[in-house]
Design a protein that fits this description.
The chain has helices spanning about 15-30, 45-55, 65-90, 100-110, 115-125, 140-150, 165-180, 195-205, 205-210, and strands spanning about 5-10, 35-40, 90-95, 130-135, 185-190. By secondary structure, the protein is of the alpha/beta class. The chain has a single domain (about 5-210), classed as 3-Layer(aba) Sandwich (Rossmann fold). Strands 2-3-1-4-5 form a 5-stranded parallel β-sheet, sandwiched between helices. The longest helix has 25 residues, at about 65-90. The protein is globular and about 50 Å long.
């Protein structure tokens, strides 16, 4: 049986990851490729329960270290119970966020450092990496409009952090892509969803050609 492929979509708040994950999944299915769309934090019952704790935290919320540990715990369950079984069954997995979000948010903008996040991932998920990480980039004005349309002013505990934090997240994502050009495809997230989808399909052509 052919092993599945693992694609993660990354980027800041309002970059269009969820929309593009759905479009990519539909495009793969049209080509006869079974695709499993999932998300982080989440993707399994246990990880979804942790997602609720992270995005709507109790009391005063989590410190940086506790937040990173919760993300790593959710990811460990997600990898073990959903991602790896799907890949072993020949399914393509498309995840709305994966490790690089923790690296950018908790490691970069949160100040914990890349090594701490990667060490947690090595322990919890055996260092699993996507076959390709698609980094969606969009300018701040476009993102603000998308978030206003999507959330109507409401936000979660992480999305609601200040602009400086989210700029640090974007800078961290960009640095990862520069350091690993073979593992990342940086996609212009501007324009309508179909235009962005076409750019993504071009980026995954090498994976499709391996079939």
């Amino acid at each position: 049986m052919t092993h599945g492929r693992f694609i993660a979509l990354e980027g800041g708040e309002g970059a269009g990851k969820s929309t593009q994950a759905r479009l990519l999944g539909a495009a793969l299915e049209q080509r006869g490729i079974t695709a499993d769309l999932t998300r982080e934090p989440g993707g399994t019952p246990g990880a979804e329960a942790i997602r609720q704790l992270l995005l709507d935290p109790p009391g005063e919320g989590w410190g940086a270290e506790a937040e990173a540990l919760l993300f790593a715990a959710a990811r460990s369950d997600h990898v073990a119970r959903r991602i790896l079984p799907a890949l072993e069954a020949g399914t393509w997995v498309i995840s709305d966020r994966f490790l690089d979000s923790s690296r950018a948010y908790q490691g970069g903008a949160g100040g914990l450092g890349d090594k701490a996040i990667c060490d947690l991932h090595q322990f919890g998920s055996d260092g699993l990496r996507p076959d390709l990480t698609i980094l969606l980039e969009a300018d701040e004005d476009a993102v603000a409009r998308r978030l206003a349309e999507r959330d109507g002013g409401a936000t979660d505990a992480i999305g609601g952090r200040d602009a400086a934090y989210h700029r640090a997240v974007a800078d961290a994502f960009r640095s990862f892509a520069i350091a690993d050009p073979a593992g990342f495809a940086v996609i212009d997230g501007s324009g309508d969803p179909d235009q962005v989808h076409s750019r993504i399909m071009a980026a995954i052509t090498p994976l499709l050609e391996q079939l």
